[in-house]
Amino acid sequence: MHERTPSRRRVLAGGVAAVLGATAGCLGGALRSDDADADGDDRVLRLTFDDAGETLRDRFVDDPTETDTTWDTAAFAAVRDGETYTTQYRKPFFSTTDDPRYAVHGGTYYRLGSVVVDEAEATRPVLRLFDADADGNGVDSGDDADSTGDSETARVVDAETLPSGDRRAVEIAHFAARARGNEGGIPIGLVERGGYVYRRPDALDASGVLADDGPDRVRFRDTVYRIDVAREQFYEPVYRATGTVVAESPEQVEAILRARKVDARIAEGDLSPDAQEVIETAEHGEYEESYPYSEGYAAVLRALHERPYLDGDIESDATATDSGAGMVRHAGRYYDYRLRFEPNS
Predict the structure, then answer these.
(1) Disordered: where is this region (predicted)?
(2) Residue 109 contacts by C-beta under 8 Å, 6 or more apart in sequence?
(3) Lowest-confidence segment of 157-166, 294-303, 319-328 by average pLDDT
């Protein structure tokens, strides 16, 4: 038996490492020699397995009778009763064609979605923030500025004192203000038209920022911002909620979810002992090797259908495929796996 080359293959599973290290010498036949390592890569390809449980239903099927949902429960009731239910701007179930939502009611499983059926015109308040010191039209952000009342130049409030809807609006508009003039840094999907658009009726009704006697400035994270509110025209989609019965049993919906979610399936007997050790290590922590990979690691990559990582062009240019991810079923459990290149420290 040949001794394992530790510079090329490292076990990172914490307590599992000691157990696996005891058998390291017996597994050297799956590894290449030190001569091959001398011409190898200066990076490692790291594999992690995150346990996703024994069923997919627990993760991907919502049961409104047991847990609170983020989507519109009234829309779910409507589709079950065959009634028309529409929402404006926001999809009722936050789902897409490629990523539908599933829900259960009375033992029946539904696939939930929506279709655009109209367009609505609406006037919305848009909150934009501008650094008061930077634009030369503000107040000092120090103690001289009154945080609760009028100052000599403007009324300044602390964001923490505002209603919850305003606090969220200020935080999101802050991201846009911080990124203004710089590249990047704006959270896509939150910032809109360079600020925050008020749409929720409860936030509109409770807003102090939008009130006629609202503040001129707001202090957020040690910066005083000038408040700018504009009422602008929007053209928003109108969605009709849809729901389709897809299963009448847990086993049937589990099969549907496997077909949609699982990228690879590995039975315990499918792999050699070396390859099985790679998976067991990844399940308990992390596993990594530098190129050229051992036969055991290569077998795992093939079993995960991640063959691009065995391509020499990929190995010489990590930007071509710098990470791979998916879901695998192994030994009766589901795992979210991820591959990524890391420096060989």
Answers:
(1) 133-153
(2) 61, 102, 103, 245, 246, 247, 248, 252, 253, 256
(3) 319-328
DSSP 121-175: EEEEEEEEEEETTTTT-S--SSTTS-SSSB-SS-BEEEGGGS-HHHHHHHHHHHH
> Cis omega before residue 292 (within 30°)?
yes
Q: What does residue 269 show for φ and ψ, rounded to 5 degrees?
A: -85, 0
- Pseudo-torsion of CA 142, 183, 127, 85, nearest 10°? -140
Bridge partners of 338, per DSSP, are: 48, 325
Residue in this structure with the two tokens 């590995």, named with its chain if needed: 266
Phi first, then psi, for residue 325 (nearest 5°) are: -150, 155
> What pLDDT is stored for residue 185 in this prediction?
67
- Residue 147 phi/psi, 5-degree rounding, is -80, -5
Place of tokens 């979210």: 336
| Residue linked to tokens 């019965």 | 245
Does the CA dihedral 253-256-260-262 come out positive or negative?
A: positive
**What confidence tens digit (pLDDT) does each residue in 31-88 have?**
333 443 445 558 889 999 999 999 999 999 999 988 888 899 999 999 999 999 999 9
Question: How is residue 181 written in tokens?
Answer: 């003039």
| Helix (H) and strand (E) counts in the chain | 10, 14
